Amino acid sequence: MRSALRILTIAAVAASPAWAGLTFTQTTKGEGGRAAGGADAVVKVMVDESHVKLTWEQTNNRMFAAGTYMLINEKGEMIFVNPDKRTYAKFDLAAMMENTEQAMGEAGKMGFKMEVKDPKVEKMLEEPGGEMLGYPTTHYRWHTTYTTVMTMLGGMKREFPTDSTEDVWTTTTIEIPPMAAKAFSGLGAPPAMSELRKITELAKAKMTGFPLKRVVVSSGRGGRGGGQPTTVTTLVTDLQKTSIPASTFAIPAGYTETEMMQPNQRGAATPHPNQE
After folding, report:
1. What phi-psi label fits residue 76: left (phi over 0), alpha (psi between -120 and 50 degrees) or beta?
2. Which residues pair with 211 in a beta bridge?
């Protein structure tokens, strides 16, 4: 889930008010640790001045099956569409986070707790990054360390240290529409990571531009690899300025509204658009 949301965060925020439209493909590939493949995805992005459409062409995430797509309007509202089921559903991030926080709170009452200790994010590098896809870039490097502390039932604690280096190449030639940035603010970390998220946002506040390439190398038992170094590379390709019909961002006629299954939801499960 976090990988999928991270893909959304990176992929859906590119547009320029001076352009009629923009399309590109974003490919994410994980290598190394045993869980690295969970990040793999190919996402087709179409965006104009006030709308975004993301289509998952390939993915290992069941929530975003191949062929499904997300629509984002000028208010930052997100709609998940499943063409196979001819359904659509509101993607309410606030509600999902609220449910997760409630579930964590209930688990805490029973003795289970997860928190982050000693989070630290440092900028190691900022330099000209050369050209990518014909656009000038700036190369940033960030070093992040933290320890995830899990308190089990009975009081036993386990610690999972994480150490990661992130290289990002951004271009300021492509602007970030406010509605997309607002829609995805606060993504990428569960409630237990709120302190780490705040520190990361503060440290990266002066990083400008749209990321054309991102390489994250993580090690430590807190990473996806379970102790093995993991490399996740995200790359933008096929970037084109083009005219996009307004119908691209409309829910198809005849589709039925349903509800997304919320994570950690108590009681009966809510039908997911990918389910029968």
Report:
1. left
2. 170
Whole-structure pTM value:
0.76
Contact 235, 247 (CB under 8 A): no
Cβ atoms of 260 and 270 within 8 Å: the answer is yes
CATH at residue 18: 2.50.20.10
> In sequence order, what DSSP letters do the residues of 208-235 get, joined into one string?
-SEEEEEEEEEESTTSTTTTS-EEEEEE
Mean per-residue pLDDT, 223-235: 74
Please write the tens of the pLDDT for every residue from 79-118.
999 999 999 999 876 555 555 555 555 555 556 777 888 8
Tokens of 271: 């039908």
Is 198 domain-assigned? yes
What is the total residue count of the chain?
Answer: 276
Question: Hey, what are 261's tokens?
Answer: 């299954």
User: Cα separation of 82 and 66, whole Å?
Assistant: 9
Q: Indicate whether 70 belongs to any domain.
A: yes
Residue range(s) defining the domain that contains residue 92: 2-257
- The total number of structural domains in the chain stands at 1
Assign 69 to helix, strand or coil. Answer: strand
The answer to the question of residue 100 being in a domain is yes
77 Cβ contact list (under 8 Å, min separation 6): 90, 183
Q: How far apart are CA 273 and CA 276, in angstroms?
A: 8
For residue 122, give every residue at least 6 positions away whose Cβ sits within 8 Å of its Cβ, in sequence order, or none.
142, 143, 144, 203
Q: Is residue 274 part of a domain?
A: no
Residues 213, 231 contacting (CB under 8 angstroms): no
